[in-house]
């Protein structure tokens, strides 16, 4: 993969910022797990934006891959007793396979029909997780596992796990940026801009859309595995359509057509939720009002707004 020097500088700056974040968060009344959660949601939203921002396809079913990998992580640790270095790749691979199969079934649908089918698959996984008590723990969720160590690194301390996630976070930024800089990424954007023209030019639109669906689903799986390890707990709401909606909201808030937009949206979302929830148990209402304001006044997202202002 080829990276312009500017891209590497920006990704490097973000990596340095997040490396220093554990020193800053306690000073503003927050905690290291909040920073970890921002990175995990940043992985989810940045990967998801390959589909939404790259091809213009809206999916409310990526929670299926997020939750599937999360539950696979817990089950492989609890039921199979596998070591963590093997668990994470296998859990992510499960999401990749699921995304490939589901994508192959629904990718030929467009618009609202596609979105509704993604919701249906996500809710199907939610129903299975909430009802299969003997395997998943049902509505009580899956417990009995804890993150331990990987390659000699003890992941139990919050700061150790933070930097472990930071490695995956930076890798995600590099991989997604490299993909979007490549000819494949440029083709995805061309499809987003004018799907009929792309088909006229002989581009296999469905193949590229399927590819974007699978790759974004795989990153959702990575995020799900890390999220469950952060909580030491898997629960049915991981599959719920609202989880996918949160990823959509993060992309929209930050700016779906700006590379760092979903990451910024993830940071705003998690930080505001954490801050407001400490002030009131009814945090969802003021948080929703804030996000409605964001969408109304920053229609291209925060980064899109500032880029438009810079360009006049």
Explained architecture:
Helices cover 74% and strands 1% of the residues. The model has no long low-confidence stretch (mean pLDDT 92). A hairpin with a 2-residue loop joins strand 1 (149-150) and strand 2. By secondary structure, the protein is an all-alpha fold. The protein has helices spanning 5-24, 32-55, 63-78, 84-106, 111-131, 133-136, 158-181, 183-193, 195-200, 205-231, 241-254, 261-277, 284-297, 301-310; strands at residues 149-150, 153-154. It has a two-stranded antiparallel sheet. It is globular, with a radius of gyration of 19 Å. The protein has a domain at 30-239. The two termini are 33 Å apart. The chain is built from 14 helices and two strands, in the order ααααααββαααααααα.
